[in-house]
Design a protein that fits this description.
300 residues, alpha+beta, 11 helices, 6% strand
Length: 300
Amino acid sequence: MTTYQHIQANKRKTAVLIFLFVLFIIILGWVFAEVLGYGSGAIVIATIFATATSLIGYYSGDAIALRTSGAVPISKEHNAYVYRLVENLCITAGMPTPKIYVIDDPTMNAFATGRNPEKASIAVTTGLVAGLENEELEGVIAHELSHIKNYDIRVMTIVIVLVGMVSLLANWFLHFSFFGGRRSNDRSDNQLGAILAIVGIILSILSPIAANLIQLAVSRKREFLADSSAALLTRYPEGLARALEKIDRSNIRPLASASPATAHLYISNPFGSEKRSFLSHLFSTHPPAQQRIKILRGMA
């Protein structure tokens, strides 16, 4: 498969996942509305609440991520090597140079944040700069710049809004179903109503888990997309493949500033490499390193 085909395939998969997510919420809302008799108003209210809380994170998330990671800004005079690598790749990609930060940590990792290319930042650890060759570091930086260019923060914000809607709907359903809803006597006596009530309770328990699984699946697809975009930008997928090998092999211990809230931003799981079972893969923000490496080395 060519690099362009990988990029298009990952974009399609992301779109399909988000479509299924929206369809899931519509079905969930319909079941809850039928059981409680509240109509579509609950979905509207949940959308407003989830969007409002997610927008706060959207506009302040980059500052929070940089602050919690202990990232320190650098200039061309302070670290010409890293600065010029980022600058040259941005010229090639036709995008503005983001603010560049360094995290003083021997662990090899990096992340990008920002809601658009004009308001973006990229951070690399000192361990990453010291441990990678020029072409390998270039591949990692190209991966992070691709996240910015592909508007991945915006995509993930949309997904987080959907996750928030599911959580709110599930919580409200459990609250009103046990503490009194607007169900009529006819509905409660109706066999279909009883079946829907059972389905509603099951959905209210399982739907937040399903929502998180979809969120993590989208996150993994965006990692594949950033890998493919980075390979296209550098025209050398082997550089990123070798970098991922070194990162996966060396990251035995977690990043000192690792946080579950920002884990999905990093190029590699900041809590350290681990053996993956099928279940742990489902609940991971990142695809397995070996799978990413194999795809990169198979690109034409």
